[in-house]
Amino acid sequence: MYNKEKVFEELTKVMHSDNIKRDxxxxxxxxxxxxxxxxxxxxxxxxxxxxxIVKLSNKVDVPFTLxxxxxxxIVKDGGIRGIVLHLKNFxxxxxxxxxxxxxxxxAIIDVSRRALAEKxxxxxxxxxxxxxxxxxxxMNAGAYGGEIKDVLDYCHVVxxxxxxxKRTAAELELDYRHSNISxxxxxxxxxxxxxxxxxxxxxxxxxxxxxxxRESKQPLEYPSCGSVFKxxxxxxxxxxxxxxxxxxxxxxxxxxxxxxxxxxxxKDNATATxxxxxxxxxxxxxxxKFDVELEREVRIIGEDLx
Length: 306
Fold this sequence. Notes:
Helices cover about 30% and strands about 25% of the residues. The strands form 6 sheets. The protein has a 5-stranded antiparallel β-sheet. A 4-stranded mixed β-sheet has the order 1-2-5-3, with helices on one face. A 4-stranded antiparallel β-sheet has the order 15-18-17-16. The protein contains 8 helices and 19 strands. It has about 300 residues and is an alpha+beta fold. Strand 17 and strand 18 (about 265) form a beta hairpin.
């Protein structure tokens, strides 16, 4: 176990103490409203601070975790040990010609809206994805036939050694709900999207249509981690769950949505344990009924509650 006082002292040397919180409850910062406490919750304001935090983590051998807004993530009730880095202060979005440069903490929905304002086409699919730019790259987020790899040109990251590095889209090995960002230990700082000129009214019509579809079909009135499972080959996860008569099933405050079977919602102050137990129940039931393995799309991290 590391010396928390020593780590705190070292952290104050590389970033402002106002942006260092101790024993911070993570559910207050995450879209799912799930998760225990972080030993250190850091919200840097410059790229240099991010680099220095990574170097410090390596130097003092303290565990390090990067969080976005948690729209595709479950943090366990025991929280996360060591340093948790949250890039909520990095929200700038800039447009130049047919390029949009967005920092990792910006909502990908806001980037799609900026593209609309600039009359640029290509990000319409992202108008309803509730994640950040960093999270969207991390999982190659997609919806309604589009995905990040279709529009990403390159990004700037801090690597596991604290170096600032440029990576092309090809170098990220983007695939269905996957990139190599996690394997490399990269922290995305900003992304550059290459789009196509379009007609404002046409782009807006597509976005309005996708928004209507999303609002009519998805349980947006409750916190959730979005679509819980990847699409099994030859099937639809939601249809399998629906046909297993699992909609409305509750574990504590977590429920299989009655509006969209592919979603599990935090309906009544659910714990992460509730959520994970319900996911496992759904997987077991679908396997027994249809002999299909449902693979989680949502990530689960952190410690169990003692």
